[in-house]
Every structure is written in structure tokens, then in C-alpha cells.
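sry for the spam today, last one i promise. C-alpha cells for design, 687 residues
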């Protein structure tokens, strides 16, 4: 068996496996939980993020590999793994990562929290007053919600919901010498899993809901002896599997598929450490879980529970200092936003600069008597979105409002469907995405009637129109009324809402029609310039780099002498530093307080620099199966600012990791270097 995270024959295989690279990213997240220079509750939050990431990885990526194994596919991928080999490798890495995550929680975080008088208590250590409180809480709040389910000849094994936490039991009748009976009780997700009990002043004590249920479990099974019990949790295949071509109504097809997501094939089974082997075998057999998918957990199952703990009020000293995003001076609250944008393009860098100007622009357009139409693409929005409210208000005010709501945004489908229906009720024209494609572009278009004629105002972004994530995700947004970009935006919206084909565009490049070709042209141009004796230089910042064709062209650029600096936060399938292949390529990943989300692409272009922002990562899905945009930043002062942003990322010596050719990451060697945390730098400068 190969060592986790490493390819087997680096000399012949030029690509890192995407699943293993994804797990390497999660390792970097977990490193932040181990890092004692981070505030304590932030470390707990990183554990919660790591746990959540593993859930999604299991539901989507592991499930897909398992499907390939079950289909009998034996062909090796470009990184050299057959599906079966990859499944085994993923299992090895995930088991080690889970062990590391729980070691961090049990050995480091719990004792540190206790020192801060935040106690995750065990029932046997509680006093009589606390036990009395829990008994009353169980009888009045928990007991009425519980539903015990027994499996016998007349009652089959129940269908368990995805990611539900359950308690399995083996019972015996007290009056009869009968066979043991299996029963299961779901820990109610409608109740808080962390239950606070009365404690001395200045101290807060929490116990787990499942421990309370176990303590009083006998009340659910009177007349029976509980022989053994333990917690378990399942993770199911969450692929939607929608046949879009055969779906007459895409909205209805997505809604039906969402219901089925709860009941996909079980991919992972998490078991409480020390669970009775007979109970274990029963669960494994009934749920038909492969051995590689069985995880024995040394602690509370599902550490996403720490997200609640990390958000407790009153503990700001255990968190990062509160970030108060700076309002760009030009967007004063009393200013005329349309005049500001008409005077020159404006760039906003979130979360260091406020997202408010984006929301306010939509609000002002909704009230503005000269606004004729508003068109916007919504991919992920917040649960109480001010953008959606403003769009509904605009429609109520008689504006022509068109909104594309992407109902295939993974794990946000249900919320997006609800928003779409609300917008329709408000009088907006709603487009429910396109068959066969996800619409991932970020465009806001406002059409106004002015003295000089019709004028289009745009906001183009690398990130979603989500006021909540804009406080934690790093993104760039461009405000412009460039007539060429405005004309391009109109063509894109006409393509999305009607039957018109996407014709030639002035400035933007769009996937899936020709964005891939544009990236290849830009890379080849750097190769050509080096061949002519000029400088060749590429800097690209993105979330993921997976696309084989793009990677091959970057290898060609490196071999030609083009210097390539890549800032890839998550998955990277390119191997840097391979002799004769990628010696001129360096890959950095920055994982810190904020999620690096912006996509920035810089090309030296023989001195006539080209700088682009985009909604797209360099992945096959973005280039071939999504509607994405790449748009230029042409004003020199804004271009200089973006270059300064990129150079700051390349200077980071605190949160940056360097990718090695074997697919693993190491921290930057700080010897002789000044400590430089790029995110802290942006906080202090508002750049």
C-alpha cells in the first residue's frame, strides 16, 4: 500500500490525484486547529470546519469513487490509481486524519477550554443539582421528541437519515429468555446537542444530548434490559443524479432528487469507540458498509458541534479581534453611487472592505426613478438576504427585474428554490438555471435612463452575492459602467433568459463556449514572448487547479522559461518542481482566518500587462459545464492595486504552505525572513 497523499511513480505520472489533494487541503485546515498561535475558540472552529469538510468529501467524492468500484471500473486515472486503489488510499488518509482531529480535540482543545472554564462535562462528574436539572430537562424537553424503533420479525431495519446521529441498542426481555433485539433511537437534530447545566459563577458546563438520552434510556424500553448501547452516525451518497435532459421541469426534478438525497447508499459509518462487537456487526451488515468506510471514534461523533461552542457570546478574548470592514471612502453613505461609478471603475476587496456598497447599489436602483431594469445572477445567498429583499422591492416599484437563481448550487438547492419562489411572487422574472449547466457567473446589471441615453451599470465579482459569507470569504468586486462590459453583460443575460446564442463579446470571456481557449491563448502568448527574448510571467490565484489541459500548458510554459506563480487555496493536481517539467512553477496555499476565494489571473504580456478577475477556477466543471465569466481590469490604478494584492500573497511567511512534487505541503522556510501574515496585512491596510 502506498503512503497516504503520495503518488506511486512520480517519474512517469505528472498529476496529483484530486481526491488526495482535497484531503491535503483539509490537513492544512486541521493544522490551524493545532496552531496555538490561533485563539482557542478559532481553533475549535477549524476542527468544526475540518469535520464538515470531511462530511461533504465523503458524500460527494468518496461516494463517486465507490460508485466506480461497484461498476467494476478498473482503469487507472492520470495519477496512476485504479478506483479500488484510490478508495483504499482515501480510507488510509481519512482514518489517520480522523485520529489526528480527535487527538487535537481530546488532548489539546478540551483541556484548554477547561482552563478557560468552558467545560464539556461527563455525566458521572456532575453534582446532584446538575443531575436533577438534567432529569427534568429529559422528561420535559427530550423525552416527548424521542422515537424508539425496534427491529424484529414484524418491523424491518429503519431507514436512517443522512448524517443523523443515532444510538443503537441490544435489548433482552426481563421476563423471557428470548433472543436479543436490536433497537435504535435518533438523537433529535431539532434540539441543541450541547446542553448547558447550572454551574458555579464564571464557569459554563455543557453535556452532550446523546449522553443525556443514554442516561435515561431505560425509560424508553420498560420491561427490557439494555445489554449494550452506543452512538453511531451514517453518511450517505449525496449525489443528486438528476437526468436534466429527461426532466421536463428542472425545478420539480431537483425537488424530487433533494428528497432522495437523504436516502442514498451508505458510504461511511462512524461508531462510538468500544461499541459491542455484536452491535457493530449488526450495523455493518444492515447498512452494507464496506470495511474501508467504518470509523471507530474516540470522542463525540461529529465535531461540527464545536461550531456552536466557538460562537458563544462573551468570549471575544478567545477569538480573533472583531473585523470591522472599511467602507471605501468613495462610497460615502450620502454619495450618488451612479455618479461615482460613471466617473471611474471602483474595486472593492472583501472582507477587508465592506459588502454594504453592493447591497446599497441594489437598494438605490430599486428606489431610483431612472432605473428601468435590474438583472442579477444568484448562486448562493444568505438565509435572510438583503439583496433578495431589494430585488423584490424593485419589482414592486415597477422595475423590470430578472433574476437567475441557480437551483443546482450544491447543498444550497432547497434554500435557492425557496428564494426563487419568493422572487416570483414579488413579480420578478425568475430563471431556474439552465439544463445541463450550472450558472456560476457573478453579474449584477442595472439599466438606467439618463440624459445622454440608456446607460448600463455593472457589478462583477469573484464571489457570491451573500452578505454573510462576504465577512469571511476573501473576494474582489468591480463596479463599472464600461459600455463594452455592459454590452457583454446584456448579451449574456439574453442568452440565459432566452434562446439567443452567445455571439462575439467585446471584453468578457465566457464558459463553456470559449473560456478554456482564452486561458490557453494567454499561456501560449507568454511562451511566445519568452521565445522572442521577452519576459514571461504568470501569476494565478484560484481555489482549485485540476484541469489536465491547462496543467499541460503550464508545464509547457515552465519548460519554455516562463515563471509561473500559483496561489491555489484548495486542490492542486499540478506537480511543481519536477526536473525538466515544472521547475519554473511554484505553488502556494494560504489557509487562515478568511477563506481565500478570489480568482485573479495575471499575464505579463510582454510588458503590456493583462489582469483578469473571474468566477472560474481552472477545473473541467468550471470550463466545460458551467456558465462562468472572465473579465479584464483595465484602469491602471486598479491594475496596480491588484498586482500589489498578488505580491502581498507571495510574501506571506506565516500562513503560506508550499506544494512539493510528491503532493504534500510544507510551511515556508522562515529563516532570515520577516514574519508576514498577508491577511493581517490586509486588515491593517484595507488594501
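last one done:
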Amino acid at each position: 500500500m502506498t503512503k497516504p497523499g503520495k503518488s506511486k511513480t512520480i517519474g512517469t505520472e505528472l498529476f496529483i490525484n484530486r481526491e488526495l489533494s482535497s484531503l491535503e487541503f483539509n490537513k492544512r485546515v486541521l493544522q490551524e486547529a493545532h496552531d496555538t498561535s490561533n485563539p482557542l475558540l478559532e481553533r475549535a472552529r477549524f476542527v468544526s470546519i475540518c469535520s464538515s469538510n470531511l462530511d461533504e468529501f465523503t458524500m460527494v467524492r468518496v461516494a463517486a469513487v465507490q460508485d466506480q468500484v461497484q461498476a467494476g471500473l478498473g482503469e487507472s486515472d492520470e495519477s496512476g490509481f485504479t478506483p479500488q486503489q484510490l478508495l483504499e488510499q482515501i480510507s488510509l488518509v481519512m482514518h489517520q486524519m480522523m485520529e489526528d482531529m480527535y487527538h487535537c480535540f481530546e488532548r489539546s482543545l478540551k483541556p484548554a477550554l477547561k482552563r478557560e472554564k468552558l467545560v464539556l462535562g461527563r455525566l458521572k462528574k456532575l453534582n446532584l443539582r446538575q443531575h436533577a436539572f438534567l432529569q427534568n430537562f429529559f422528561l420535559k424537553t427530550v423525552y416527548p421528541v424521542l422515537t424508539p424503533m425496534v427491529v424484529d420479525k414484524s418491523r424491518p431495519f429503519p431507514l436512517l437519515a443522512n448524517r443523523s446521529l443515532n444510538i443503537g441498542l441490544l435489548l433482552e426481555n426481563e421476563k423471557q429468555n428470548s433472543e436479543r433485539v436490536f433497537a435504535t433511537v435518533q438523537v433529535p437534530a431539532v434540539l441543541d446537542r450541547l446542553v448547558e447545566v447550572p454551574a458555579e459563577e464564571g464557569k459554563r458546563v455543557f453535556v452532550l444530548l446523546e449522553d443525556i438520552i443514554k442516561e435515561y434510556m431505560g425509560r424508553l424500553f420498560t420491561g427490557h434490559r439494555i445489554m449494550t448501547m452506543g452512538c453511531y452516525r451514517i453518511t450517505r451518497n449525496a449525489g443528486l443524479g438528476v437526468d436534466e435532459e429527461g426532466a421536463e421541469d428542472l425545478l420539480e426534478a431537483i425537488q424530487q432528487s433533494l428528497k432522495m438525497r437523504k436516502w442514498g447508499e451508505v458510504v461511511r459509518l462512524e461508531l462510538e469507540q468500544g461499541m459491542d462487537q455484536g452491535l457493530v456487526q449488526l450495523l455493518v451488515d444492515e447498512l452494507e458498509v464496506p470495511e474501508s468506510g467504518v470509523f471507530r471514534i474516540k470522542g463525540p461523533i461529529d465535531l461540527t458541534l464545536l461550531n456552536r461552542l466557538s460562537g458563544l457570546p462573551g468570549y471575544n478574548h478567545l477569538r480573533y479581534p472583531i473585523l470591522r470592514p472599511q467602507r471605501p471612502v468613495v462610497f460615502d453613505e450620502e454619495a450618488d453611487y451612479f455618479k461615482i461609478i460613471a466617473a471611474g471603475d471602483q474595486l472593492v476587496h472583501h472582507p477587508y472592505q465592506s459588502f454594504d456598497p453592493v447591497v446599497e447599489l441594489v437598494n438605490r436602483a430599486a428606489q431610483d426613478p431612472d432605473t428601468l431594469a435590474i438583472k442579477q445572477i444568484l448562486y448562493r445567498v444568505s438565509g435572510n438576504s438583503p439583496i433578495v429583499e431589494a430585488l423584490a422591492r424593485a419589482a414592486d416599484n415597477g422595475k423590470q427585474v430578472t433574476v437567475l437563481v441557480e437551483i443546482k448550487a450544491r447543498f444550497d438547492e432547497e434554500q435557492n428554490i425557496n428564494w426563487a419562489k419568493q422572487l416570483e411572487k414579488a413579480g420578478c422574472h425568475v430563471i431556474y438555471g439552465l439544463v445541463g449547466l450550472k450558472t456560476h457567473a457573478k453579474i449584477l446589471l442595472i439599466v438606467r435612463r439618463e440624459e445622454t441615453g440608456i446607460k448600463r451599470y455593472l457589478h462583477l465579482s469573484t464571489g457570491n452575492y451573500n452578505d454573510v459569507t462576504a465577512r469571511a470569504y476573501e473576494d474582489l468586486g468591480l463596479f463599472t459602467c464600461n459600455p463594452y462590459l455592459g454590452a457583454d453583460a446584456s448579451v449574456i443575460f439574453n442568452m440565459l433568459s432566452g434562446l439567443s446564442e452567445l455571439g462575439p463579446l467585446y471584453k468578457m470571456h465566457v464558459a463553456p463556449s470559449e473560456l478554456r481557449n482564452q486561458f490557453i491563448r494567454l499561456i501560449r502568448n507568454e511562451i511566445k514572448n519568452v521565445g522572442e527574448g521577452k519576459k514571461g510571467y504568470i501569476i494565478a490565484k484560484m481555489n482549485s487547479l485540476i484541469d489536465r489541459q491547462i496543467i499541460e500548458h503550464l508545464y509547457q510554459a515552465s519548460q519554455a522559461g516562463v515563471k509561473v506563480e500559483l496561489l491555489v487555496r484548495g486542490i492542486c493536481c499540478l506537480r511543481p518542481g519536477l526536473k525538466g517539467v515544472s521547475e519554473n512553477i511554484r505553488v502556494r496555499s494560504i489557509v487562515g482566518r478568511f477563506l481565500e476565494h478570489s480568482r485573479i489571473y495575471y499575464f505579463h504580456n510582454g510588458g503590456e500587462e493583462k489582469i483578469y478577475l473571474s468566477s472560474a477556477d481552472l477545473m473541467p466543471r468550471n470550463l466545460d459545464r458551467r456558465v462562468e465569466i472572465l473579465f479584464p481590469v483595465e484602469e491602471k490604478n486598479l491594475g496596480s492595486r491588484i498586482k500589489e494584492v498578488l505580491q502581498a500573497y507571495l510574501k506571506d511567511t506565516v500562513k503560506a504552505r508550499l506544494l512539493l512534487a510528491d503532493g504534500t505541503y510544507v510551511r515556508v522556510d522562515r529563516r532570515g525572513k520577516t514574519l508576514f501574515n498577508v491577511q493581517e496585512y490586509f486588515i491593517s491596510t484595507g488594501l
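The longest strand covers residues 224-236. ok im logging off now
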